[in-house]
Structures are given as C-alpha cells and as structure tokens.
Amino acid sequence: MESMKEKTRYSEAELAEFEEIILKKLKATNNEIEFIRNTLSRKDDNGTDNTALGSKTLEDGADMREKERLNQSASRLSKFASQLEAALIRIKNGTYGVCKDTGKLIPAERLRAVPHTQQTIEAKLAAQ
What we know:
This protein is mostly helical. The chain contains 4 helices and no strands. Helix content is about 65%, strand content about 0%. The two termini are about 35 Å apart.
C-alpha cells in the first residue's frame, strides 16, 4: 500500500467513491433548495384564512423575517451546490483531492467529511 507521501492522485475507485458522496450531497442540497423555493412561493399565497386585517399587519413582520431567513438559507445552499458541482468537475479533470495551496494529496477522511474542499486542513489553517 502506498503512503500518502508517495501518492499524488487518487485511484479511479477512490474517485468513484468521492463522486458518489458528492452526488448524494448534491441531490439532498438541491431537494432542500426546491423545498425552500416552494415554501417561499406559498408564503405569497394568503389563502382564505386571513380575514382579519388587524392581525395581518402583526404577521407581516414575522413573515418578512421568515422569508429573509429562507432566502439566506437558499443562498447558502446554492453556493454549496456550486461548490459540489465544481468538485465533480475536478474529479473529471483529474485535479480532485489535490490541495490548491500545497499540491499535496488531501487525506481521504477529510474529503469524505468535506467533499468539496480544495485544501488540506494545514493549508486552510495557515490561510486563516
């Protein structure tokens, strides 16, 4: 078995494992984004239960805060989905798992936990 120092790239089998992890996370993320979008589109539908105007003004502030929170969540999730998609591209072009700062192989345990990462933990900590 090769040591981490000798190894400069992951095998096809290892890359397939990472790709499966990324695809699962991407699907879950896209499902969550879709759920938020559906929730936001329903919030615009007042329905028939809002007959008292006085209570509606009190609810408007809470609704706006909730919409803002959902929009922020959707934005974060969209960014995460983009990072996952970029990781899939790196798998295809052979650069996945290589630290962008040091050129060293990122440990598989880190990639399993944070599959979109482009840095070893040492490089990430050094950059902070």
